[in-house]
Amino acid sequence: MEIQLWRSILSSYELAVQELIIKFEHLIKEYRTNDRYSPIEEVTGRVKSISSLLEKMQRKNIPMFRMEEEIEDIAGIRIICQFEEDIAEVARMIAARKDMEIKSEKNYLTHMKESGYRSYHLIIYYTVETIYGPKRLQVEIQIRTLAMNFWATIEHSLQYKYKGNMPPHVTERLSKAADAIIALDQEMSSVRNEIMDAQNSSQMQSNLVSDI
Ligand code: 0O2
């Protein structure tokens, strides 16, 4: 397929990612200006590269005309939270919005992947305005804690390094590290209220200073 056609398809997904990042970042700002704890710590996003789209189409035997229907993560948003409890709160916020419609979810928190991967995934429908009119797209939203993200980032680099042939001793260490991440998230949750209080009062202080 011509590069021009790829660019034209992917540009709507780029718009969706940009709009969604702005919207989630605005929520963080709103919480902070209202002296409230934000369940979202950070948001990032990306559009899948043409080469990884081609690889996925080949791996799953997806013809070009079915790509936008069958590849649900052409556009991806990642929402990072401080605590595991925040993940459900963010999912509730998304479900309540009129501009995002949830198509499906994958709960890798209750069903951890064999690799040790944990995260909560949603596929949503999101509409962007293009020169040809509105276009309804699928976007994958991954919601996870800072600790889960730390593990997933490192494991992803190792997967890349070993190209699917991870030595057993590395797999085993990653599995042990995944257990440590579960324990860390549980420990942080147990002091959540205290941390939230501390963060709220320091946020109030900085809002007061910026008001002066
Ligand atoms: P990238 O670079 O993040 O885009 P498939 O995409 O075929 O593997 P499926 O069912 O389409 O699987 O999607 P799934 O499993 O819900 O989510 C796939 C995405 O979740 C991956 O995207 C990763 O971002 C993340 N993910 C899933 N499993 C793991 C894992 O074991 N380790 C890590 N680090 N991340 C995982 P991509 O396209 O693989 O990568």
UniProtKB/TrEMBL annotation:
Coiled-coil intervals, chain numbering: none
Source organism superkingdom: Bacteria
Annotated protein name in UniProt: RelA/SpoT domain-containing protein
Domain RelA/SpoT: 45-166
Native organism: Blautia hydrogenotrophica (strain DSM 10507 / JCM 14656 / S5a33)
Pathway membership: Purine metabolism; ppGpp biosynthesis; ppGpp from GTP: step 1/2
Any GO BP: guanosine tetraphosphate biosynthetic process
